[in-house]
Structures are given as C-alpha cells and as structure tokens.
Amino acid sequence: MNIVTFSFLLYLACIFIVGITTMRMGKTYEDFLIGGRRIGPVVSSFALITSYMSGYTYTAAPGLSYTGGYSTLWWAMGDAPGNALSFGLLGRRVRKFSELLNAITLPEYYEKRFNSPLLRIVASLVILVTVSMHLVAQWTASGKLLSVVFGTEYFTGMFIGCIVVLIYTIMGGYLAVVYTDFIQGLLMFVGTQVLFFVALSRIGGFAAFNDALGAMDPNFVTPWGPGNAYLGFLVAATPVILIIMGSFGMPHITIKHFSMRNPSTARHAMMITAVFVVLFSFVYYMTGGLARVILGENLVDVEQSGVRLWFEVLPPFWAGLLSSAAVASIMSTADSFLILLVSTIAHDLLSRFSKKEIPEKKRLFISRVLVLVVALISFLVAMNPPALVFTIVIFVFGGMALAFGVPNIFSVYWKGTTAAGVLASMVSSLVVYVGSTLAEVQILGLHPFISGLIVAVVMLVLVSLITKKPTDEVLRLFDASSEYGDIPKEAAQAASPAVRCEAARAVSIMGKTKRFGLDTVLEAE
Amino acid sequence: MSGNEIFWSSGTWLMFLAQGVILIAIFGLYLYMGQKEKEAAGKTAARKS
Predict the structure, then answer these.
(1) Which domains does chain A have, with CATH numbers?
(2) How many CB pairs under 8 A join A and B?
(3) Which of A258, A435, A489, B16 is deepest in the core (most CB within 10 A)?
C-alpha cells in the first residue's frame, strides 16, 4: 500500500468512527433531520462552509482560474459576505421563526409562515429537481478527482465517493453530516493552504507568480480577464450577487440555520465563517493559476488542474492528505444533499400528505431507504455528465438563489409577504432564468440570473401587495422572531419534541400556537 | 510591463483589499448584534425580576 492510499484510508477511518458515534447519539427523527437543534457556532459554521464549497472547490474553481487568471476571483468575492451574512442577517431570524412555527424543513417553514400547503409542495418539488442536479455534479467531481488520485477509471472514482458518503449518512443522519463536515472543513482548509504556499514558493513567490502568469497573457493578471470578459460594473458584479443570493437561498445551507442551538449562535457562527472563508476562498481559486504556471498550458481537462498540481508539487503524504480534503469537499456537500432530499420526500411530501400517521421508526427507515434510491439515480446520470462541473453547479446555484433566496429574505424582513407573492416570485423568476439560459438570450443585455432576480423581487412585492395578508398570529410571530434574544427555555422545550406527522390533523397556525405554549413567548416578548 | 506591475497598476490588488474590508464590516456587525443581544437579555431579566 502506498502512502497516498494509506493517508486516504486513515481519513476514511476517522469519518466512519464519527458516523458510528453519531449513530448512537441520534435517537429521534428530529435528530436525524436537524440534529435536535443543538449544534453550536463552530460546528454550524464549518458545516455551512463545507456544504457550500462542494466538489466545485477542487475541480471547477481551479479550472476557472486556469483559463481566466485573477479575473475569476469575482466568483470568490461573494463567498465571505454571502456565507457570513446568511448567518447574521438571515440565520438568526430564520432559526427563531422556524422554532416558533415548529418547522424543521424549509418547505414546512414556508407552509407555516405563509399558511399555504401548496407552497410546501412547490418548494419541495423545486428542491428535488435542483438538489438532484447538484448531486450529479458532486459525483462527477468525485470521478474526476479520484481517477487522478488513484489512477483509476472515472467510474471507479465516482463509485468510491458515492459509497463512502452513503454509508456514513445512512448510519448517522444529520449529526453524522455536521460532525464529519467539521473534520472535513479543517482538512480542506489545512490542505489547501499547504498546497497554495508550497506551489507559490516553488514558482519563487507572489511577484514571480504574477510575472509568469502575465507572460502567458497580460490579461490573466487584470481584474477583467482574457477578452475583457469581466469588464463593466454589472458583468463583474453578477457573479458576486449570484454567490451572495445563493448563500441566502440554498436549502442545504438554510437547514444549518434551523439546526443551530439558539438564535444567538448565529452571531458567533457569522464571525467564524467570515474569517475562515476570507482566508480560504481566494486561495482555492488561485490554485488554477498556479497550475497553469507550473503544469503548462496544455491540460486537456482544466477541471483536473488542481488535483494534478498537488501531485506535482507536494510530497506523497501531503498529496494523499489533500486527496482526502478534496473527497471531503464532495462528501460534505453530497451528504447534506442526501439528508435534504430525504427530509423533503419523507417529511414534506409523504408524511405531510399521507392520510395515516406514519410511526417515527418507520419514517426513519423510509428516510434511509430513500437515501439509497436518490443516490443511485443521480449516480446513473453522472455516469455520462451533461456538462462541466462549473456549468452544472452555477446553473443550479442561480436557480436556488432565485427560488429560495428572495423568499427567505422577504419572509423574515417584510411582514406583508404573502403565499401568492412567494409563489409568483418563485415560478416567474425560474421561468425567466431557465428559459433565457437555455435559449442563450440576454433580456435587455442582462445576465439571465440578473433578469430572474429583478423579476423575483418585483413579482413578490407586487403580488403580495394585492393579495390577502398573512394571519394576525403569523404577524405576531414575525414580530417575535425579529426581536433579539433567545426563545425562553420552557417554550423551546415544548416545541422541540413536537415533530409529528401533520397530515390528517393539520390545524391552523392559531391552534399550533396554543398547543406549543407560544402564547407565553409572545407575552414575554 | 511585467505581470507583477500589471497586477498593481490594473487594480487587481483591490480585490484582496475588498476581502479585508468585508471582514472589518462583518466584525462591526458582530459587535452591533452583540450589543443588541445584551440589551434583550437585560430586558428579559428585568421582566423576570
């Protein structure tokens, strides 16, 4: 066994130990889906970052920089504010509101916030489509990376990544996901920093790197890139806005807000996230530029530039460690997606709309079987990937940002947001975005995402203004969620175990409020 | 002009500076939120007493 394989197996052993440990910790359905709402700021922060970064980090990002130099840092500019503010501006309020409404998934939150079962169905369907597509990108990235690491076929690389994620997700559920994400985050951070500085010193330092890159094409070292691709305010701002809105909208990110120990966890998580991402995001993009200088300009698959670089510049042990970091980035996203898909199918669709109440044990079993089914389908699609990882991820990212980013923000910052407004916003913006992307049309010269964003905001506001306002109870909860401070313990304890199948006995928001003792909270507020 | 000179003269370095500014701004928000949480905790304690 060589050192690369040994360090990779060592990493896998750590992950499985965490899986087994958390399997014992997770006893209930709520534990499986959102970790019993007891995740602290450090783990919440790392879980969000690693879920966000995905296989994109080690394939698409270096690939982009390999072909565009510094100009591709526009894609990295939104990472830190997007991730951090998703905790600070959105997470704190969403955490509080979701607990007051007793919602443990995003579609459930929408249904209760806007009193609309239809909205729950539409949100669930959008999640199923977008997340499944994103999962395809993760298996594709796995195939590309591991085929280089182990010198195997693309299929074998995909297979290894898929099997490892499945085993520990099924074992431990959400707790396994967040705690393995924490370990994976550390590994990704250390591994990438080592790669960056070793590669930079091999070239001769920062100035020598700039000189070498500029000698290939002077545009590589400007903010506008080859062909002035990013020249112009809106052109440069589009990736930044897309990334920030995506951070507010991606459902597997939002679930990290739900699972925080309390609303004030968001503040600390925001700061940890900001520091970590600022130190990390530029570095992983720039590995592509470093690869171009060190490996030359003739790589066939530019999305393998990062992985080829670390085998070129690092000793075998570090290369093996970084291989683990790269696999970690895929796993940490794929596992979050699997949990999200399962919660959407089992909790938001099956449980919610079945006529009989399904026992908790049975739901847990169904959830785990569904992990397998969804993974298998996405795996089959990834055997012949429809596009580059970058293309798939950014397309899905835009869709999630429009479908959920805008409604999420309005749901906690504007009282007057209505179910009809959110529905109109989701559907119209997705039609504009997907339609103009597929037809390769730019309405008024705008990027499809910007067109979709304008439509999303305008439709949400206009339709909300002319449709029926939310109930008084929801408005009272809105006020309570916007206040600073945590939810009183007695109310939180009353709400937490009350996760039940609500199919046949769906009651009004007013009814739930009384049942969970939230009148006490509102009086206290 | 060398690549390093283009890096500095074209303003690419501002992208790095922007990251620092973002970090400072978020630290400001962190302090502001901490202050608000303190006030909220004070109010709750006063209500209880």
Answers:
(1) 7-389 (1.20.1730.10)
(2) 98
(3) A258
In angstroms, the first-to-last Cα distance of chain B is 71
Give CA–CA dist A423/A427, Å, rounded.
6
Taking the C-alpha atoms of residue A21 and residue A175, their distance in angstroms, rounded to an integer, is 9
pLDDT tens-digit readout, A33-69: 555 566 778 878 877 887 777 777 888 889 999 999 9
Structure tokens at A249: 């909208």
Q: Please indicate whether, in this complex, the C-beta atoms of B29 and A278 are within 8 angstroms of each other.
A: no
Q: What string of DSSP letters covers A309-340?
A: HHHHHS-HHHHHHHHHHHHHHHHHHHHHHHHH
Distances (CA, A) of B30 to A233, A264, A504, B24: 29, 11, 44, 10
Q: In terms of Cα–Cα distance, which of A84, A134, A106, A401 is closest to A243? A: A401
Q: Distance between CA atoms of A260 and A48, rounded to whole angstroms?
A: 11
d(CA A119, CA A421): 10
What's the confidence (pLDDT) of residue A516? 35
Do residues A512 and A494 lie in contact, with contact meaning Cβ atoms separated by under 8 Å? no
> Is residue A385's pLDDT more than 80?
no
Residues belonging to chain B: 49
Task: Please provide the average confidence, as pLDDT, over all residues in chain A.
Answer: 80
Compute the average pLDDT of residues A276-293.
92
pTM of the model: 0.82
